[in-house]
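Dephospho-CoA kinase: structure tokens wanted.
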Amino acid sequence: MPFVVGLTGGISSGKTTVANLFNSHFDIEIIDADIIARQVVEKDSLGLKAIKSRFGSNILLSDGTLNRAKLRNKVFECEEDKTWLNALLHPMIREKMQLDVSEASSQYVLLVVPLLVENKLQNLTDRVLVIDVDEQTQLLRTMERDKVGLEQAQAIIAAQASRSDRLSVADDIIKNDTTNKDLLPEITELHKKYLELSMGNRSE
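Answer:
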């Protein structure tokens, strides 16, 4: 089993940017929980069949794929539906993440999980890297990127773990408050550290 670095951070912190730099410069494999979350509800998947069974065929688009907007509205309006959906999908996502980690071939692997802290998934990792930004920067980036108003951006951030909660589980931190910050020097140093840790992990 490879050495696993859990990469997390709040919305608009720059998780994807950091992960892509690890991948493009050092060929480190990325396992992204958001991508897996889409895979487990793909057309004809067990996840989608269960969702259709609960909500009816009108939860699907005309091509038989999931109508994500409609499902999002349903679970937003009904806490019971949200609980049911999480109970269905979280074990599937977790199992697929563990499978992908076990099949990774790079010297260590980045497990990108936006809700790592919220879902208490630190036990899937050997080390946690938090991409940290202040809330004002998060708000501005979220409003610009997602074309939402201040109130909606604040609600999204409030629904996530607090900045202090994320930092409390961090082994490593990259501060990404500045626009167009050159992240590569920090990532290079972390890469060296993770290589050393992964070597030690394999020799045990």
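The radius of gyration is 18 Å. Residues 16 and 120 are 20 Å apart (CA to CA).

Cheers.
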